[in-house]
Amino acid sequence: MSIWANFGGMAALALLGAGLAAPVRAEVITEYEPFVYDTDTPDVLQLDGAINHRAAVLFKLALNDFPKVTTLSLSSEGGSVYAALPAAYDVRVAGLKTMIPEGKTCASACSYLFFAGAERMAEGRLGVHQIATSSDSLSDGQVTLGDIFKAFEDFGVPTSVISRMMRTPADSMYLFDPEEMERLGLLGPVPGATEVPVEAPAQVAEPAPQPAPVQPTPDPQVAEPAAPAVPDPAPAEDTQIAAVEPAPAPPTEMADSEGLDAATNALDPLVAACFDAALPWANDFGWPGIRSKEIQTGRAIPACERARAQAPENDWVTISLARALGEAGQDTRAVSLYEPVANRGHAYAQGSLGVFYLNGRGVAKDQGRAYRLFLDAAAEGDATANFALAVINAFPSHTIANDMQAAIDYAYEALAAGEDRSPQIYRDINKFPQAVRVGVQRRLQREGFYSGALDGSFGPASMAAARLLALSRQAEG
């Protein structure tokens, strides 16, 4: 065989090779950093590094440019809350799976993206800690703690995880390993994650400066003939102690659907119909409640009348009927229903009845009786009673009680009940005397929820601390 024959064979192979496509080399695209895309794994987008202020925009662009992505791989020590929160909502809306690879950590603000996954997977560690309420991302009003808690609710974060977060100082980090995440129910498909897309909260503007405290206008009426004249604690419209009713329980606090179905089946249908129409949030059944202003009295009153005829011994049925009657302006009858239940020591009935006596609704105004009812109800944690006692004790014009430290303690407990159950204290805290507001800030600081100035100004950082307190109490309960 001649050399030309061998050469010709090699030439033929070379020519043949020239006709074949060269192997495609994987490309790692970094122009969306901290998000990285590797063409070798087209269904995975990686978060690798700190979440900077442009991360939310870059994440949205990356999802748009790489439509095959179904999984977000996470390796980050955290970063901007302002960028992480909207990016987390984009994770949920896109229905992405989230994963923490072996040997990697997703901590602090990165955890929001992990929580948002429609399915969560982890071989690495998840880090959480208290949110620094004095940080720029929160105190500038762009993102409030309320937005963050709403995200946790939307993403189905277990309260046990939130509780651990609240108990870990901002300068520390609690790390969950995969086994603990599994035990806490953090891993696997998230029920309902793909049913209704959620939307990120709108940016929150910095609130206007708070007005100076508004002291309630005194009312010359006398509560009890044998006692000194007692002014109405709050006749002014914006500070009037009204019949405050909590909102429906948030999903993280509701009984699970299976438990709720069991509770429904265990009740008489007439009782269940009454509860659906008028039961308050703070009940013994884990049942979602209803705001007083959302009660449809035309439906609720007859439903609860029928239920009471069927179950006259059920105090929650009586309370539900009284609520509906009070909302319909039938105050005298509402009082007649609240009275025996309150006398049996029912805290919700005591707090509600106290409002009727305090304001002279359906009964002669009797602030001494109202005060005693509030004391009994507050001892059992009733939110309305704690707010009322804070107001009564805070202003020097009141002679029924005037104890500034008591006002601080009652205001603190009203805040601890949460914005759903105690909306007036969150709305009107800046109308209290400065000494009360400073005292509340000091107690929030002592309990580890607040690190700002003790100046009595309840701006975003102080309100965020109050919401941390409430969430911590809910997680403990």
What does this entry look like structurally?
The chain is of the alpha/beta class. 47% of the residues lie in helices and 8% in strands. It has a seven-stranded mixed beta sheet. Strands 6-8-9 form a three-stranded mixed beta sheet. The chain has 20 helices and ten strands. It folds into two domains: 28-189, 2-enoyl-CoA Hydratase, Chain A, domain 1 (Alpha-Beta Complex); 257-476, Serine Threonine Protein Phosphatase 5, Tetratricopeptide repeat, CATH 1.25.40.
Intertermini distance: 92 Å
Strand order, largest beta sheet: 1-2-3-4-5-7-10
How many domains? 2
Write the element-wise H/E pattern from the N-terminal end onward. HEEEHEHEEHEEHHHEHEHHHHHHHHHHHH
Q: What is the architecture of the largest domain at the second tier of CATH? A: Alpha Horseshoe
Q: What about the largest sheet?
A: 7 strands, mixed
Q: Which regions are unreliable across 5 or more consecutive residues at pLDDT < 50?
A: 1-22, 134-142, 196-265
Count of separate DSSP helical elements = 20
- Average pLDDT confidence is 78
In short:
With 477 residues, the chain is α/β, with parallel strands linked by helices.
Topology:
Elements: H1 3-18, E1 28-29, E2 35-38, E3 44-48, H2 55-65, E4 71-75, H3 81-94, E5 97-100, E6 105-107, H4 110-115, E7 119-122, E8 125-128, H5 136-139, H6 145-155, H7 159-166, E9 174-176, H8 178-183, E10 188-189, H9 257-266, H10 269-278, H11 297-310, H12 315-327, H13 331-343, H14 347-359, H15 367-379, H16 383-394, H17 404-416, H18 423-428, H19 434-446, H20 460-476
Parallel strand pairs: 3-4, 4-5, 5-7, 6-8
Antiparallel strand pairs: 1-2, 2-3, 7-10, 8-9
Helix pairs in contact: 2-3, 3-6, 7-20, 10-11, 10-12, 11-12, 12-13, 13-14, 14-15, 14-16, 15-16, 16-17, 17-19
